[in-house]
Amino acid sequence: GDHRDLHSFPTRRSSDLYVILFLLRSRFDVMYYLVHIILPEIVYTIVVTLLLYPLILWINTRLEHGELRSGKKFV
To answer: Which residues of the chain form beta strands (DSSP E)?
Structure first.
């Protein structure tokens, strides 16, 4: 199938769970939902991004540097 389904599965599943729990509790207070679910998700996403991005960038830079070196050997 579609490769995007695999990437969005955990996020999609957790957001669906939040919506279901939200509706089951009958709390239709938008501020409650914003403060207890949306803002924590935003903060979590930002923190994880800030922590992982430098590592991923470093790995990518090392891989590209290795590809450039190995490419020069064969030319």
So the answer is: none
